[in-house]
Amino acid sequence: MNRKILGLAGLLATGLLASGLTGSVTPAAAQTAAPAATPSAADRLGDRVLGDPNAPVTILDYSSMTCPHCATFHTTVLPQIKEKYIDTGKVKLIFRDFPFDQAALRASQIARCAPAERYYPLLDVMFKNQGQWTRAADPAKALSQYGKLAGMSQQTIDSCIADKALEDSILTSRMTGEQQHKIEATPTFILNDGKERIEGAQSFETFAKAIDKLLK
Predict the structure, then answer these.
(1) Which residues pair with 154 in a beta bridge?
(2) What SS3 state is found at 134?
(3) Cα(122)–Cα(114) distance, rounded to whole angstroms?
(4) Binning pLDDT at 50, 70 and 90, where does residue 122 land?
(5) Whole-number Å distance between alpha carbons of 151 and 88
(6) What DSSP string describes 162-211?
(7) Residue from 111, 23, 5, 25 nearest 67 by CA
(8) DSSP-H helix ranges across the chain
(9) Contact predicate 94/51, CB 8 Å
(10) Is-contact 208 84, C-beta < 8 A?
(11) Can you give the pTM of this predicted structure?
């Protein structure tokens, strides 16, 4: 079952491969990577595009960082989409933050403070290790270890979490999804402004069918 919306009030590949941030990571064993340049405020708030910006098919990925089905997509289905469609210039994916809770919001904030080239690899690591940091006594502290693996200092991470403009931008992304695209559960994928729509934990074949239809 997809995780349903809660009220708002209730609320890398190359870069991280070089830093050793791949697969399952134990926060206690995390080591700080080479320092990364902190993105500007504008870059933090803007879209992060995975793939060729001119690709004919655009996938808007509305996901929550604490959503198990979202983690399944990012760890099992997205790599197949990337290999067949994104790396070949046919598809671009844009992650749209849709936090369900405080932990998801903090994860989104930390990820957006990573340099653009480390953003999607960092999301990947967070999703792969979702079962660890979401169950931690202090999820924000656990998440900070992944931020350090992406080259962020603790000062940068703390500043990021305290960034009200960034927090508001992420919550606005959620409201836009609710109002513009009628998002009612995650993950939900909007392809080419709604010409195709995919909801929930779906197979690679489901995505391939929708993408191929748009490529004709």
Answers:
(1) none
(2) coil
(3) 8
(4) very high
(5) 29
(6) T-HHHHHHHHHHHHHHHHHS---EESEEEETTTTEEEESS--HHHHHHHH
(7) 5
(8) 13-19, 41-45, 68-72, 78-81, 102-112, 116-128, 130-133, 139-149, 154-161, 164-180, 204-215
(9) no
(10) yes
(11) 0.83
